[in-house]
Amino acid sequence: MNTQFNGVNVVITGATGVIGSTFVKALVEKGANVGILGRSEDKIIELQDEIDKDRKQTVGLVADVLDKESLTKAKQTYNDKFGKIAVLINGAGGNNPNATTNDEMYDATGDKTFFDLTEEGVDNVFKLNYTGTFLPSQVFGKDVVEATAGTIINISSMNAFTPLTKIPAYSGAKASVSNFTQWLSTYFAGHIRVNAIAPGFFETHQNKALLRNEDGSYSERASKILSQTPMNRFGEPEDILGTLYWLMDNEMSGFVTGIVVPVDGGFSSYAGV
Length: 273
Hints:
- By secondary structure, this protein is α/β, with parallel strands linked by helices.
- Helices cover 40% and strands 13% of the residues.
- It has nine helices and seven strands; from the N terminus they run E-H-E-H-E-H-E-H-E-H-E-H-H-H-H-E.
- It has helices at residues 18-29, 41-51, 68-82, 119-144, 168-187, 208-211, 220-227, 241-248, 250-253; strands at residues 9-13, 33-38, 58-62, 87-90, 151-155, 193-199, 260-263.
- Helix 1 (18-29) links the parallel strand 1 (9-13) and strand 2.
């Protein structure tokens, strides 16, 4: 076992997703005590059974990032087992079909244009991504601010830099996460370091239908993405780990706060020509 984060107390929201679960596994391997926070108890248990059968380094935290009361109970559960939290990773987020157009550019004959997007869908996306980062930071941040080398790491997106077609609410919501990261880093300057990671295109359960045809081949949208990605591939969750370790390690990034680090294979730096 690599003991880089031996005994470090960490809570991860959205911890049963593709990226979140990769973080959980990696940090347990490096010795951290990880709070696995998600809405599905079954998924949490499945993840624990895979990596920590005796529950020595993990604790399941069934909670909704939009429910402050459930987050407060989750914090108490973590504190009872491992003590105070030093690192919070805000990994919860996502999009909604009712906030996504079918067309990349306006077509009056389209069956789902900008004018068809629902208020409920847009509200859901902003709450999940922004409020779902804000509330855990309020609740778990009370411990983090008292830690010797406390840090909060948010998960933004490369579309926070330049909005993607079809997903106006998600792009805007992730931009708000980046902005909140900068605000929080200033507010807690000298107490907590706050940074964000902005993943590029990764194949997840959520976007697989957009990136793959029924026969498993790349969709037209996937081919367009790859043509704009200098490294010419989609990211793997493990590609984010080095950046995560760097931002968590106070000896390596102790003077780094308020930044958003793209991990996108060059997508955000390529002009297309």
